[in-house]
Design goal:
heterodimer; A: 968 residues; alpha+beta; Immunoglobulin-like; six-stranded antiparallel sheet; five-stranded antiparallel sheet; B: 166 residues; mainly alpha
């Protein structure tokens, strides 16, 4: 009897783990009675009875439901909510939430593991694999390689995980827990001189389809081909890669990759190859002989036949040209919008349409190799009764995902169904942007643009015109490709319906989690994306913080991190120029870091008040009585200390400010002085909530500073400032060597520049704890001039820091004098930041034995102009035509000159000596610095005559006498 | 009753004050309720309880206001009057718990005023005062419960729990 029970138990376990399971957005219960649909950003989950589709249950459970998985009892349904960053466990019968786990960032894939009785979930942005019990407890959480997304669990316990943005697949062993990594496969990257041939980096691997015999896995994805300027028909290609799953010998089979023209080469009646785009999900027929793939962009189902190809990957030799499967049919065009998930039930195919929120039913037409799939019911069931998204935003999102040329032949978003915005901008605008920029390696001296070139108004200045230009030049849409009767569109004067489409697209692009201010990546939690902004009183006057943090306030208030917008006349000049040349909306790019409070409350430009000479923040102190009515410039206390999320998208203020969830004390924000006094008493009585509310673990990370100290041009994506990256590559980034490690804070927020590297005790709170190393808030940087107008001590600190950056050396070579400038202390390039405006140069004087000057270089003239032949350390930006951009640095398209010195490196400047030198010679070399060139200051002074003229500062000097060199 | 009233009216102001003062020593109810209310409102403010901040912030207001004003107007006058009894008490237990109560009351009150007027700003003294307030107030609550057992406002509760004084 016991043997019988044991046998039954083993049978049951074997049954539970008998088939591979994958993460999908549309799934069926094993008995086929129900379909479950993750309804994406409607936030709904739907359950449909297949025998009676009218019997449908829908429930809004979150914000953006991406994937579903059923447990072995079919009563527990796990769902990932990508935007709310929750994993939900629902009762599969009524879709009520039983458990909700907050799991940042961006939970995506989910599968049920019957062997271990848990759900595996990928956290896309956090790069984690999480195991969740049926009772809603996190049992395992471990880091993975970047961007885990799709999941598939094989019956032998191997867990496949795609890495969407790096083109990799990891294989974990879940037979013993925690899971162990067994192998990581990098999908092949191909390159071809002919840019119209399918090639590029495998990206956007969201799903895995495993064959019924578990011999192969199909991975739909795209290929990013960004090694050349974007152009229609060469930037993105659809592809499906195939893995051999033989245990221990897992590998990609390159010859089985399905690519355009080679293995996806179906033609229409006019013998023109049909183009498909954005492969989404794949599913095998029950006998494994056919594979059906949804094409989310071109809105098709592509059918592959495997019956006449090799099935066993083990029989595919290294040089085999067997395709593994042949594309035999394209079901074009599906009636729904943006097909993603699909489920095969016998002869039926159910396709989930993410934008129209419905299911289309198709028939496979039988199992014959000649069977033809066809649509049987265009809208078999509506998934969500009432779409919660406003119609305009839904339309904008549809356009963002749309590459279906045939549906809108006059004004299609893509030519020849080639690609959509979503082909590159995965799920909109988010951290994946940094992978886009990384995928475009550039020789910046030839072309620094990684994104969209030929924009007329940098997007923000005129989004309608520039959206059209992007769609035309990259996707071939809106009249660029006229083969399918598309009408021409003038970006500057589009027809009304195209304008409406672009406005709808803009409504989607400016949703709070995308780019609410278009040009900057700043996001404000609390702005609802409907064209509304924060109330000005959401912000606090930083002077209110001074009552307890007086030293910190004094340091900050005069600093450049405070007065960096309306009170910085150089900034004003440039922001005004940006608004004038590109369009007023483009100012937001500047405001995101320089004036975020004003931007967040709906102001379109810097403030008009100028506090350039205001010492100690007197105007703030005066305004302190009405603290909630002031929107100050710069990085205020509340701004920096309420950045609650970093999304490394490549810079441009890629963070979220959250004011609505801070822990406030009753009375602290009151306009009534007595209540405010009492509120402060409460803070001091129990300060922990206050401390927690204004601290984040990442505040000490250099990446935090890098959010603004990394800039790229919005749209073109040319890297304008890369200070963080320069530091990250340097020897100063040594987290495992504390003696060597120098973060941004260690130098720029240090109380005593002469003691960098040593702790300096001090107080952050009046009467508070003596900190071993107080982090001061004067933000010492290269700009000694403007803070110096208010605070000479800060100017001295800046100059002291600058003097630690570079060391001078002198030597002779055959041709003359060599001045070596070594970047010993900057920790990033010397100079960094706005090195296109900073002036660092060498002033060299050589006198002969009689004291006669025989060489002079770098001496400014009477007007303060540095001579053209001076050796400067700088970058010179050029536009697309190779002309210097001057003040319009955002038009940077190629690097004309780059004489900056990387950290740990040096630059030798050679000065030939005249003939017939009377030895010995005396050489004097100075490293000079001026904050802005004289011509820029003169321009600024025309706007602001009270601005003094910044002088030239000599940072370092070296002198040496040399006798005649020995002849070799 | 009438004679008594007439007698009271004939007393001068000082005598009437003295009589009231002496009577106050026996009027423990308000002071005791205030003390328990302070203890009850203080508990959720302890970090270990991790109460929701939206609840805590208003609890903090109540605790601070009651502590600031209730201590001076309700607890301190009662105790000043009441301590005369415990000094004279023949019961050593009451004398002992009374003494402890007095010390704890002093520590709790002083630390409470320190916290509300100056605050715990993270320094050693602030932390010490914070801890002192927490520990002393917990101790005070327990000692007072025991000290006042027979006459306590909590007597109905003790009775319900089968712990009532016989």
């Amino acid at each position: 009897m016991s043997r019988l029970l044991l046998g039954l138990a083993l049978l049951a376990v074997a049954h539970l783990a008998s088939a591979a399971v994958s993460s999908h957005s549309l799934i069926a219960s094993p008995d086929g009675k129900f379909l479950y649909s993750a309804d994406f950003d409607s936030g709904y989950v739907s359950r449909i009875e297949t025998a009676n589709p009218k019997s449908r249950l829908e429930r809004q459970v979150g914000k953006d439901i991406r994937r579903l998985a059923l447990d072995s009892t079919h009563q527990l349904l796990a769902a990932t909510d990508y935007r709310a960053e929750d994993v939900l466990l629902l009762d599969a019968r009524n879709l009520k939430v039983k458990h909700r786990l907050h799991l940042p960032k961006r939970p995506f894939g989910v599968v049920y593991d019957a062997r271990n009785r848990l759900f595996w979930v990928t956290l896309f942005q956090s790069a984690k694999l999480v195991g969740i019990s049926e009772s809603g407890k996190v049992l395992y959480s471990q880091h993975t390689a970047d961007t885990p997304r799709g999941l598939a669990l094989l019956s032998d316990g191997r867990l496949l995980m795609t890495h969407s943005m790096t083109g990799q697949v990891s294989i974990y062993n879940t037979r013993s827990l925690p899971p162990t990594l067994e192998k990581r496969i990098t999908l092949k990257t191909t390159q071809n001189p002919d840019q119209t041939v399918s090639q590029g980096l495998p990206r956007r691997l969201d799903n895995i389809a495993v064959s019924p015999d578990e011999r192969v896995a199909w991975l739909p994805h795209v290929l990013w081909n960004f090694d050349h300027p974007f152009q229609f028909q060469s930037t993105v290609f659809p592809a499906i890669s195939v893995l051999s799953l033989k245990a221990g010998e897992e590998r990609e089979i390159p010859s089985w990759r399905k690519q355009l023209f080679k293995q996806i080469n179906l033609t229409n009646t006019r013998n023109r190859t049909l183009i498909v785009s954005n492969p989404a999900e794949a599913a095998f027929s029950p006998d494994g002989k056919k594979v059906y793939v949804t094409m989310a962009g071109s809105e098709d189902v592509l059918v592959f036949d495997r019956s006449r190809s090799i099935h066993d990957p083990g029989k595919v030799g290294p040089n085999s040209d067997d395709p593994g499967a042949k594309a035999v049919q394209l079901v074009r065009t599906l009636p729904g919008s943006n097909p993603r998930g699909l489920v095969i039930q016998g002869d039926d195919i159910y396709v989930q349409n993410a934008m129209s929120l419905d299911l289309t039913k198709l028939t496979r037409g039988g199992n014959s190799p000649f069977a033809r799939a066809r649509v049987t019911v265009a809208q078999w069931v509506k998934l969500v009764d009432k779409d919660p998204l406003p119609a305009k935003i839904r339309e904008g999102e549809r356009i963002f995902n749309d590459a279906d040329t045939s549906k809108h032949p006059s004004y299609p978003m893509a030519g020849d169904s080639w690609m959509s915005c979503d082909s590159c901008h995965t799920d909109g605008f988010n951290f994946t942007n940094r992978y886009l920029m990384a995928a475009a390696p550039r020789n910046i001296h030839e072309n620094a643009i990684t994104g969209h070139a030929s924009l007329k108004h940098m997007v923000g200045g005129d989004f309608v015109g520039d959206y059209i230009r992007m769609i035309q030049n990259t996707q071939g849409g809106l009249g660029h490709d006229t083969r399918d009767q598309a009408k021409p569109v003038d970006p500057d004067q589009p027809p009304d319906n195209v304008r409406r489409d672009m406005e709808a697209l803009h409504a989607y692009v400016t949703r709070p989690f995308n780019l609410p201010f278009v040009s900057t990546w700043l996001r404000v939690d609390g702005v609802d994306g409907q064209g509304q902004f924060l109330h000005p009183q959401s912000w606090l006057n930083s002077a209110t913080c001074a009552s307890c943090h007086s030293d910190i306030f004094k340091q900050w208030v005069d600093s450049n991190h405070h007065y960096m917008a309306g009170s910085d006349p150089y900034y004003r000049l440039l922001e005004d120029l940006a608004g004038k040349t590109e369009g007023e909306g483009f100012r937001a790019w500047c405001l995101g870091c320089h004036d975020p409070e004003r931007l967040s409350v709906g102001e379109k430009q810097h403030g008009q008040a100028n506090h350039m000479f205001d010492k100690g923040g007197q105007f703030l102190q005066r305004a302190g009585l009405h603290p909630t009515t002031l929107n100050d410039e710069g990085a205020s206390c509340l701004f920096c200390h309420r950045i609650t999320r970093l999304d490394d998208a490549g810079g441009n203020a890629n963070f979220t400010v959250n004011l609505k969830d801070r822990a406030t004390y009753p009375g602290e924000d009151s306009n009534n002085a007595l209540f405010r006094w009492f509120g402060k008493r409460l803070i001091q009585a129990k300060p922990q909530a206050h401390i927690d509310s204004y601290s984040q673990p990442f505040y000490s990370s250099s990446q935090f500073c890098g959010s603004c100290h990394t800039e790229f041009s919005p749209g073109p994506g040319a890297r304008i400032v890369g200070t963080y990256e320069e530091w990250a590559k340097s020897s100063f980034n040594a987290p495992t060597d504390p003696a060597r490690n120098r973060t941004c804070i260690d130098c720029h927020m240090h109380a005593d520049i002469s003691r960098i590297g040593q702790p300096v005790p001090g107080y952050a709170t009046d009467g508070g704890k003596l900190k071993k190393n107080v982090v001061t808030h004067q933000f010492t940087g290269a700009n000694y001039f403007l803070p110096g107008l208010r605070n000479p001590h800060q100017a001295e600190m800046s100059l002291a820091l600058l003097r630690t950056a570079a060391k001078l050396g002198l030597s002779l070579d055959r041709n003359g004098v060599v001045v070596r400038v070594t970047n010993v202390g900057a920790g990033h390039k010397f100079p960094t930041g706005v090195a296109d405006f900073r002036q660092f140069w060498l002033e060299v004087t050589v006198t002969d034995a009689e004291g006669k000057v025989i060489l002079a270089n770098g001496q400014p003239d009477a007007d303060g102009k540095v001579p053209d032949d001076a050796r400067q350390f700088r970058k010179v930006f050029g536009d697309k035509d190779g002309k210097p951009v001057g003040l319009e640095f955002w038009r940077y398209a190629r690097m004309l000159e780059d004489t900056r010195i990387p950290a740990d490196s040096y630059r030798d400047e050679h000065y030939p000596l005249p003939d017939q030198v009377r030895w010995p010679i005396h050489v004097t070399a100075k490293l000079d610095f001026r904050i802005f060139p004289a011509w820029v200051t003169r321009l600024v002074q025309q706007q602001n005559p009270t601005l003094p003229t910044p002088g030239i500062k000599t940072l370092n000097t070296i002198e040496q006498t040399f006798g005649a060199p020995h002849a070799d | 009753m009438t004679a008594m009233s007439v007698g009271h009216e004939s007393l001068d102001l000082a005598q009437r004050c003295k009589a009231r003062w002496q009577a106050l020593a026996y009027r423990n109810r308000t002071a005791e309720w205030t003390l328990y209310a302070l203890a009850f409102s203080g508990l959720p403010l302890i970090a270990a309880f991790s109460a929701d901040w939206q609840w805590q912030r208003w609890d903090l207001v109540g605790h601070a206001l009651l502590g600031t004003f209730g201590f001076i107007t309700l607890i301190l006058p009662f105790w000043s009057s009441h301590r005369r009894l415990l000094l004279r008490s023949r019961k050593s237990f009451l004398r002992m718990t009374g003494r402890i109560t007095e010390v704890l009351l002093l520590v709790t009150g002083a630390s409470g005023y320190y916290l509300i007027l100056w605050g715990n700003r993270g320094g050693p003294l602030g932390n010490l005062v914070h801890q002192a307030h927490l520990i002393a107030s917990l101790g005070l609550t327990l000692v007072v419960m025991r000290h006042a057992w027979r006459w306590s406002v909590l007597q109905p509760l003790w009775k319900r729990l089968g712990l009532g004084a016989r």
